[in-house]
Design a protein that fits this description.
By secondary structure, the chain is α+β, with helices and mostly antiparallel strands. It has one domain: Pleckstrin-homology domain (PH domain)/Phosphotyrosine-binding domain (PTB) (PH-domain like, Roll). Helices cover 44% and strands 25% of the residues. The strands form three sheets. A four-stranded antiparallel sheet has the order 3-4-5-6. A three-stranded antiparallel sheet has the order 7-8-9, covered by helices on one side. Strand 4 and strand 5 form a beta hairpin. The longest helix is centred in the middle third of the chain and has 24 residues, at 73-96. The N and C termini lie far apart (63 Å).
Length: 182
């Protein structure tokens, strides 16, 4: 292998943090992506857990496909293909979905083809709400609805520890309100 084709290890700065290239930032997932966008003195307080309940629709279509395949093979095969696509989309959504609270802001990353990163400073946050469906209650997940100042509303679905995440955000918001009024 030539010198150009070898991958270089990440460079460590004087503070001990890794410098991540722009290409690595856009393809990194989970904690790596979160660490790449943090400010030097910023601390992660909570990262939301994405529920395995994200796969429920694909599993239901897969079971339906298996049942339909008994009577109508071609239709069952088509539904099987659709269920595999649904499971793949669910996997990719879970892979790229990120909801984190730091000591300075809330960071949300979502999307598959068009990967969006949204950052709310706590001073620009109006409310944090939970939205639970019947299936979400059965499978143990909720959608976190974050409302910013203006008309910005962001919904982050399939959060397993949504109540704990909201409690952490409310704690931070109340602390900041107390600091501002003091």
């Amino acid at each position: 292998m030539t010198e150009k084709n070898q991958t270089q290890p990440p460079k460590i700065s004087e503070t001990g943090t890794q410098k991540v290239s722009v290409r690595e930032r856009t393809t990194a997932t989970g904690i790596e992506a979160l660490e790449s966008i943090l400010m030097p003195d910023e601390k992660v307080l909570r990262v939301a857990t994405i529920s395995p309940g994200i796969y429920w629709k694909g599993v239901v279509v897969f079971v339906l496909a298996a049942l339909v395949m008994i009577k109508a093979f071609a239709l069952g095969l088509f539904l099987m293909f659709v269920s595999v696509l649904m499971l793949a989309v669910s996997y990719l959504t879970r892979y790229f979905l990120l909801l984190a609270a730091t000591d300075k802001r809330v960071i949300i990353r979502h999307g598959i083809i068009n990967l969006d990163t949204i950052q709310f400073r706590y001073t620009k946050l109006e409310s944090v709400e939970l939205s639970r469906t019947i299936i979400g209650q059965l499978l143990g997940y909720a959608s976190v609805v974050i409302t910013g100042t203006g008309s910005r509303v962001t919904v982050v679905p399939f959060i397993a520890d949504a109540s704990k995440f909201r409690a952490e955000l409310n704690k931070i918001l109340f602390e900041q309100d107390e600091k501002a009024s003091a």
